[in-house]
Amino acid sequence: MIMKYTRRHFIGTAAAGMGAMMLNGCFSKTRYHDPYEKVTLGNSGIVTTRLSMGTGFQTRNGQSSLARLNFDQAENLIREAYDRGVRMFDLADSYGTHEYMGKALKAYPRTDYTIFTKMRHRRASNAPEGMSPGEETEAEVMRFLKEINTDYIDALQLHYITFGNWNTELSDYMTALDKLKQKGIIRAHGITCHDLSAVETAVNEAWVDTIHVRINPYGTHMDDTVEKVEPVVKQLHQAGKGVVGMKILGEGKLVESDEQIDHCFSYALQLGAVDVLTIGFEKISDIEDCESRIRKVPV
User: Does the domain formed by 31-294 have CATH 2.60.40.420?
Assistant: First the structure.
């Protein structure tokens, strides 16, 4: 039997169909990542921006590319990053960037931005003679506070960990940092990794609040192959660690084409396991470029 439809019936049926399609998401607007959206770093309690300003790019002889600028240039770059929306600044004693950051950010409310910094340990550097790891740690952190011009550090990490049993070898440092955390001098502690075994240990180490991992889709300047590193990074995230992705562009080696750069950003953002991307900026156009690329990546 051939059914006849009135004009009213047709319009009503079409409207109902459109409504169902909208409810099912067929016409939902695609959302894209925002470089300045606020994210929570695992269970650390730290809330900051998706995009972090790294300050350790091309570090040589205790000076990064940022530290090799004069103070005015460095201060302008840091303030431009802040004014555009960056709220996480990634430092290290070995980068030589503490004083630059302290001067540049002193005009802004301290609670508005997040400071990560890192200290070397006895196995990675020459510690002062006659000092225990605990004494060394406290003395170093007190110096950091003065250099950065702050009363507290959001996250203090043991830097450049390259061995799997770091949680037993460096237990004195861990204890010292935990005491500083209890005093409110630091809010969180963790490590930066340069070896896959160190990353694997961090998964089940309750002491780790935050961790820097090297991650990009090409395996450049990473701790092992992408196939081996990726599942461990996901385990870190599932374990409640605050994951900061570094070497997103392979320390500047993965910039041969726009397609390659875009792939690096989309990979890190869509992995579902990296909370913050830390990128080294040398000029304002670098910040603008990162912003535009992040905003192209669907959520």
Answer: no
